[in-house]
Design a protein that fits this description.
Distance between the termini: 38 Å
Helix content: under 10%
Number of helices: 8
């Protein structure tokens, strides 16, 4: 760990016997702590570090030791008095300043994953104490460290990254669980997408653009990019949140980063039992949901009869040493006993029974003080079984009749992650990580047994409701879904004078295999509407009686490969200024259902950043970053564009109905088929040949100030500008017109076969333009399709104020306020405006020019003001109170309707999804804003210290304490199509509300053997 003015040297040495503890010296908490040998940047690491500065002169060493693991190492400060140590397993460390075997001062420092802790100047503490007492009685002066588990935004001047980190002990005192999503929602700049996906939106991106990590392994759910393959929240020790400006060593993400680490064992044996119990549905603790009616008084949503039994999650755990000071374990056994819930619809009751069991083992081997190996293994089995019953009267839970059908979901999930860290010498550090996760989902249902019967529904045009009237309760049959992901990552850190260089690379491969087919006879729907403009260009008969038949055959096995490499330079440009520069290269490779590569998207992403320790003592940090960010697309992306698929809809008149199966009889087809997909696409059909990776630019500037011993403040500015997306378009008419203008006069192309482009950019498409049976490339200007370039701009201002809990002031408080603006014509990977939670890169946007008219405006995430207040208070009698208050202004909504030209593909293939209402353009985000939202969650925990070795706590957690029933969304669809004369079929559900979730209560019991 060389420095220009000296050398930091480290050697193994035990702490001298007979160290004594002096009085607390609080006034040195803001002592001078400069950057230590430019160490830092612990991104994506399950270890942490510390750094400090000593002016005690020559002949001193700094000893870092852990009583819990037996770790001990001596560090010699450089000529400027700076020192640092990284690669430390999380936990409490004693840092001692030693001269000639005599301890001059000592500090207890809490090291957390992914960040460096600043150590107060121990020599200054000793000098201060010596001025007031006899030096011969001084001994070791103890200094309280500034890094605490409740300091969620620590001032770490060794990196330009701004991170928020939560320890499980703080989370356990709050009315939230330890899952990464729950933790992220404690930040006011994070938006909870409760009306669409149920996941969080970070940095203005869609909820499908975040990345998730456990023990450095990327566990993002690459089935659809929403959420992650999860480990038991009970096993999580710390979760780190990065909302903007992540360094190049993280996998590329245009959203946020959530990184969690799993608990580790120590020399001390601990064991415990945790029980989380949700009482059954009741008016006081867990009331039922709120019904919604539409404009004609029918139910839009019906929740008042839904109920559930008591639900429990329980865990047995233990941790300790297998070999003292060397090999440690943390083991967890989880079990969710079977529980039942009931849901009621218009004509059916669904009764669901669910259970889960899981196992986890985390081993930590401290091979030497310079080498450690961590291995994490996990297995989870979950299943749910559904029975469906007929309701003899609509929406009457007391009229349950005959059993109809069943369905089942069984999921088998497994994890294996290994991490190796090696401090090769003073200047070189190596990190290696490798992992695997897999998930197999079995979804049998009674439709498999009744495959000879069609799925039959009936549509009532007056109420605009669709009712199942046939034998089958599910229109699809599913093959097992097999998803797996494996990968590795490694980097080498080289300290070269004032520069710390990091060279790294990673490789992830994931696969998804599944088949989804409609029942062989198809899905029939009866209609009673006369003169309706059908998507196939025909008009429904004057009698109004016709039936549609929908057939969907799709599936396959798809693999995606994400490769990455990066180089980083942390340059100590001055004593108080760190400059960061990095370059990241990624290559996203996608294969179709038969293994052919259909798209390869390389991209280079430069990053810049700085950290300025203004006062030289870590009390005021000014930081910033500027970079280019991309994101890989998930397996479902390949499924949607590259799978063998046949999808069509036929329309018929009929003369009768089979009384047993409800199948229509005497069919006469109306017009041709409305086709949306057909056959097995070739790579040339799937995508333009010159398609490029999506990316955006991000910038942030922030300042952190330690206001006094316990209070700190934050000001952060963020800016995001999306420049390119990958989307499908289906406007073959645009290609046809351009090809004909270039001399291919006989070329035709349909408007239902879609292919991938970068919207608004020139593209090259291979087709048989000459009609001779061979394909040739044609360069086509982006303007030929009439599609705009993607636009998504987001900027925000965040203010934060935090009080760290101390024995003298036993309360934690974090106030977070964000002002934000988000506007453009796309939300990113998913279509939040149309509440489409899936089909990444295949949203309705950019399919046809007509769907983009009126699309530029305030986006679904344009929430201007957000406030989150999080706090705890610890009483001396063992009682602890916690609370989270969330409030924000309303999001904009749109009016979505049918394109007025029924011959246009926008109407034929995207009914009721254009920015038209009653034939007029309705600009995105201008319909109305949702009302102001607020919610209060509270918890009360009581701790019993049974004896020195046993601790018991009981907690009551209540979300939405007031049971407020606010509107969180409204239906935005204005019509259900057009009549033959062009007038709208007005939707009775337009502006029907979706309500805030009712009060929910959980009891948590935790017993710990200390």
């Amino acid at each position: 760990m060389s420095k220009r003015n000296g050398v930091c040297r480290a050697e193994t040495r035990g702490i001298g016997e007979g160290l004594t503890t002096g009085r607390l010296v609080r006034r040195v908490l803001a002592a001078s702590v400069l950057l230590a040998c430019a160490q830092g940047a612990l991104a994506q690491s399950l270890t942490g570090g510390l750094y400090g500065h000593e002016a005690a002169g020559a002949g001193v060493t700094v000893n870092v030791a852990s009583r819990a693991t037996g770790f001990s190492k001596d560090i010699t400060p450089d000529a400027d008095g700076r020192y640092s140590l990284t690669g430390l397993n999380p936990g409490e460390y004693q840092v001692s300043l030693v001269r000639d075997g005599q301890a001059l001062g000592q500090s207890s420092v809490l090291v957390n994953p992914n960040r460096n802790a600043a150590v107060p100047e121990l020599g200054a503490a000793a000098a201060s104490a010596a001025s007031s007492v006899n030096a011969s009685d001084l001994g070791a002066v103890t200094v309280q460290a500034t890094t605490m588990s409740t300091t969620v935004t620590p001032i770490d001047v060794s990196t330009p990254e701004l991170t928020t980190s939560y320890n499980y002990k703080l989370i356990d005192a709050l009315p939230v669980d330890r899952s990464p999503e729950s933790v992220a929602r404690l930040d006011s700049s994070v938006r909870f997408d409760q009306h669409n996906t149920g996941f969080v939106s970070i940095g203005g991106a869609s909820p499908a653009e975040n990345r998730y990590y456990y023990n450095e392994f990327d566990v993002t759910n690459d089935k659809n990019s929403l959420g992650s393959t999860a480990l038991p929240a009970e096993a999580i020790s710390d979760t780190q949140l990065i909302t903007n400006g992540a360094s190049a060593s993280w996998t590329n993400a245009t959203g946020g980063v959530m990184s969690s680490t799993i608990k580790q064992g120590t020399n001390d044996f601990h064991a415990g039992y945790s029980l989380y119990f949700t009482p059954p549905t009741s008016r006081l603790l867990n009331p039922r949901g709120h019904n919604t009616v539409n404009s004609i008084g029918d139910y839009y949503s019906y929740a008042s009869a839904n109920n559930h039994d008591g639900q429990a999650q329980q865990y047995l755990w233990a941790s300790g040493a297998i070999v003292k000071d060397k090999l440690f374990f943390y083991a967890l056994l989880g079990n969710d006993p079977a529980s039942r819930n009931e849901q009621y619809g218009q004509t059916q009751k669904q009764s669901t029974s669910s259970r889960d069991k899981n196992y986890l083992l985390n081993l930590t081997w401290n091979i030497t003080n310079d080498q450690s190996l961590n291995v994490l293994a996990h297995r989870d089995y979950s299943q749910s079984f559904n029975n469906y019953y007929q309701l003899n009267e609509n929406y009457n839970p007391k009229s349950v009749g005959d059993w109809l059908s069943w369905s089942q979901t069984r999921t088998d999930t497994r994890f294996l992650i290994g991490n190796y860290h090696w401090q090769i010498n003073d200047d070189l550090q190596l990190r290696l990580m490798g992992g695997y996760l897999g998930s197999i989902v079995y979804s049998p249902n009674s439709s498999d047994e009744n495959s000879e019967f069609p799925y039959v529904t009936s549509y009532n045009s007056a109420t605009q409701t669709q009712t199942n009237i046939g034998h089958n309760n599910n229109p699809y049959s599913y093959s097992p879904s097999d998803y797996w992901r494996r990968g590795w990552k490694g980097d080498l850190t080289w300290q070269l004078g004032d520069h710390k260089l990091v060279f790294g690379g990673e490789y992830y491969k994931h696969s998804l295999a599944s088949t989804t087919d409609s029942v062989p006879a198809g899905w029939f729907t009866y209609y009673d509407q006369a003169g309706v403009a059908l998507p196939n260009g025909s008009v429904s008969p004057a009698t109004g009686k016709y039936v549609s038949q929908y057939v969907d055959l799709e599936g396959g096995s798809f693999q995606t490969i994400n490769k990455g490499a990066y180089v980083e330079d942390y340059w100590q440009a001055a004593d108080r200024v760190l400059v960061y520069g990095a370059l990241r290269w990624d290559n996203y490779i996608y294969k179709d259902g038969v293994g052919n590569q259909f798209m390869r998207l390389p991209i280079t992403s430069p990053r810049l950043g700085f950290s300025w320790d203004v006062n030289g003592d870590s009390s005021l940090k000014v930081g910033g970053s500027l970079g280019k960010y991309s994101i890989p697309l998930p397996s479902s992306f390949s499924f949607g564009v590259a799978e063998p698929r046949t999808t069509y809809t036929n329309y018929y008149t009929y003369t009768g109905v089979d009384p047993s199966t409800q199948t229509p009889l005497g069919l006469t087809q109306i017009g041709g088929s409305a086709i949306t997909a057909e056959g097995v696409p070739t790579p040339a059909q799937i995508a333009a040949t010159n398609i490029k990776a999506p990316f955006q630019y991000e910038a942030q500037l922030y300042a952190q100030q330690q206001l006094n011993t316990n209070w700190s403040g934050l000001v952060q500015l963020g800016w995001v500008d999306l420049r390119r997306v990958v989307e499908d378009t289906c406007y073959g008419g645009g290609v046809q017109a351009y090809a004909q203008s270039q001399g291919y006069t006989n070329y035709t192309q349909n408007n239902y076969t879609c292919w991938l482009v970068n919207p608004g950019e020139n593209f090259t498409l291979k087709r048989d333009y000459n009609g001779d049976g061979s394909v040739e490339p044609l360069s086509i200007p982006g303007a030929a399709l009439g599609l705009p370039r993607p636009a998504h701009k987001y900027y925000n201002l965040k203010l934060g104020l935090t009080h760290a809990s101390t024995p003298d002031e036993p309360y934690f408080l974090n106030l977070s306020y964000t002002y934000a603006r988000e506007y453009g014509n796309t939300n990113g990977l998913i279509d939040e405006e149309r509440r489409n939670a899936g089909w990444i890169g295949q949203t309705s946007a950019f399919n046809y020019p007509g769907v983009m008219i009126g699309s530029n405006g305030n986006l679904a995430g344009d929430i201007r003001h957000s406030l989150t207040a999080t706090g705890t208070y610890d009483f001396t009698n063992g009682l602890s109170l916690g609370g989270v208050f969330t409030a924000h202004t309303g999001a904009p909504t749109s009016c979505l309707g049918s394109y007025p030209d029924t011959s246009d593909p926008t109407y034929q293939y995207l009914p009721s999804q254009a920015h038209y209402c009653d034939g007029q353009v309705a600009k995105q985000g201008t319909d109305k804003r949702l009302p102001f939202f607020w919610q209060l969650d509270l918890s009360a925990t009581y701790h019993w210290k049974i004896n020195a070795s046993n601790d018991l706590s009981l907690q009551l957690r209540v979300s939405n304490v007031t049971n407020r029933q606010g509107t969180i969304d409204i239906n935005q669809v204005y019509d259900n199509g057009l009549y033959g004369d062009g007038s709208s079929i007005d939707s009775v559900n337009y502006h029907a509300a979706t309500w805030q979730l009712p009060r929910a209560t959980t009891l948590a019991l935790r017993y710990t053997f200390l």
